[in-house]
Known about the structure:
This protein has about 375 residues and is α+β, with helices and mostly antiparallel strands. It has helices spanning about 5-10, 15-20, 25-35, 75-90, 135-150, 165-180, 185-205, 250-260, 280-290, 295-320, 330-345, 345-360, and strands at about 40-45, 55-60, 65-70, 100, 110, 115-120, 215-220, 225-230, 235, 245. Helix content is about 45%, strand content about 15%.
Amino acid sequence: xxxxxxxxxxxxxxxxxxxxxxxxxxxxxxxxxxxxxxxxxxxxxxxxxxxxxxxxxxxxxxxxxxxxxxxxxxxxxxxxxxxxxxxxxxxxxxxxxxxxxxxxxxxxxxxxxxxxxxxxxxxxxxxxxxxxxxxxxxxxxxxxxxxxxxxxxxxxxxxxxxxxxxxxxxxxxxxxxxxxxxxxxxxxxxxxxxxxxxxxxxxxxxxxxxxxxxxxxxxxxxxxxxxxxxxxxxxxxxxxxxxxxxxxxxxxxxxxxxxxxxxxxxxxxxxxxxxxxxxxxxxxxxxxxxxxxxxxxxxxxxxxxxxxxxxxxxxxxxxxxxxxxxxxxxxxxxxxxxxxxxxxxxxxxxxxxxxxxxxxxxx
Length: 363
């Protein structure tokens, strides 16, 4: 999953739980726009995209712009400046990152009445199409290009230690679900939970084994809703709010899970639609390897990272919803099936990855 799919569950919480104030009125947005050299406001439209922040599209005398009001958890000034430094670096390299519009005082974001806003030039294009092979390949090429461009870039605020998709954290989530769902009263479901715990323990061991993996500032939310296309060409890669220092292979694993998954899916109870389609898996890796170098050790741990993402993100989503209307056994069984597939097909994934990369390099 892309991390934003967990974000969707997060955003489903009540406004009070999220810590957000009431949505601004048109007058308040006019006040925000008064801090930007954009001319007279002509129209305001609530933006559909975005799970955590609140977003609007505004038309002014000088064009069309995208306004973001940040969630309270994402308002740290040093973090915002580091994200904008990342975006600026990408734009200077010709990458299709958005253009940040500065305030009349030259700041890249605005703090007003304890709220934090930022403005970007609006990018007009088309969304990602899962049925369009050219979009899949372009998404892979662009991710590889991003990883190549950010190598060596390490703003301190984006390099703080984090444990994204940590198997240790996932085991704690599983224990919480076992208690919440009273799995001790449901032996079959409790048995599935024990298998999931064993899978997570195995992943933790494997993560500790391969030695140092290439790390960089990953995008953190690289999935369809953050890509804008013109034909088969990406003209916008949006939303760097989750950029953070991680193993590069983690983002590659997330992208493969998202872009190579079947549409429509076949799972009934969890956020993931099912295991990847092999053809899409290969095409994505081949395209990615045209713009980024994949190391052998990254391929060797790729199946473990995919397994870890499936397990940790699924359990996180289940903890966020807490209720289990379909019964714990069926829900946990679907999560376990993903983990079983990743482990059973680990060797094939590595072989397919090596062949895909060899094919890409031979072009």
